[in-house]
Design goal:
Elements (H helix, E strand, L loop, with lengths): L1 H42 L5 H16 L2 H23 L5 H42 L2 H7 L4 H39 L4 H14 L2 H24 L7 H25 L6 H6 L1
Length: 277
């Protein structure tokens, strides 16, 4: 019994250790597959129709479905962050410092996390369940017999859709959250509206937007990789599709959290310099 318990613990530990490597490896494969698919679609090949249809379906879904959620959550975060910063700082920070801190949090942290989190629910989760269901019904094997690569037909279009949609939803989140923060500071601090708008524009323009976009793309790619890894896995359980779905959501949000921590930690000591400059 002790031997069986030890073996089970070692197996679980091995899976935990291997998880990051699986996700990164799948991300690299999906990135490569996406480039191949894009080149194939643009080639005008006679067999491109089904791939265009799958890509169009996924793009429409990934751009459209999360919009309402992104808008609502961005407005909530915009009010919450501006309330927290303006009240916690007291008289220690000037109005310009408050605007800067709110801009940093909303643009560099909230927007990437929110877009990746929404697309985990709308993109990675359905992908893992779809792949798991297909494998459960032996459809994946049937497609392989016909010479159709499921990664090229199903996961590559979803990868392109999720990564491109992540940029759109990040910009939407930035716009809505900054607008909500501007409204809150205008009402609560009784500041001039032109001062707030120009202040936010100046502070946001000074932020490293390109690095934020890279952060967004990497997070989106890793999130969809989680869905693909779990979709292609086959847990030996009669409820394996449900297990795949729960595992995908848990691991996706863990990946988003880790990405946020990795991005935040090196920048913490830079905040006083940003305020004092």
């Amino acid at each position: 019994m002790a031997r069986g318990l030890g073996s089970s613990l070692l197996s679980s530990l091995g899976k935990v250790v291997a998880f990051p490597f699986e996700i990164v490896g799948m991300g690299a494969r999906l990135f490569s597959d996406s480039i191949k698919l894009a080149a194939f679609v643009l080639s005008g090949n006679d067999r491109v129709g089904i791939y265009k249809k799958m890509l169009g379906r996924d793009v429409m879904e990934m751009f459209g479905a999360p919009v309402s959620g992104v808008i609502i959550m961005s407005i909530i975060f915009g009010f919450a962050v501006s309330f927290a910063i303006s009240h916690a700082s007291g008289s220690l920070l000037t109005n310009q410092d408050v605007i800067l801190l709110v801009s940093i949090i909303l643009v560099q942290q909230v927007a990437p996390a929110l877009s990746s989190g929404m697309l985990a629910a709308r993109g990675a989760l359905p992908l893992s369940i779809e792949l798991g269901t297909m494998a459960d019904k032996k459809q994946t094997h049937s497609l392989e017999i016909l010479g159709i690569d499921t990664r090229q037909l199903i996961t590559a279009p979803r990868t392109i859709a999720v990564t491109t949609a992540s940029l759109f939803h990040s910009f939407l989140s930035m716009l809505m959250s900054i607008s909500a923060a501007t409204l809150y500071l205008y009402v609560s601090l009784d500041l001039d509206l032109y001062f707030l708008v120009s202040g936010f524009f100046e502070k946001v323009s000074s932020l490293p937007i390109l690095s934020v976009l890279v952060h967004v793309l990497i997070s989106a790619l890793l999130v969809i990789s989680v869905g693909a890894v779990n979709g292609y896995s086959q847990p030996k359980n009669k409820n394996r599709v449900s297990i795949i779905g729960m595992r995908t959501m848990t691991q996706s949000y863990l990946v988003v959290l880790v990405m946020q921590v990795v991005v935040v930690l090196p920048k913490i000591d830079q905040i006083p310099d940003l305020i004092l400059r």
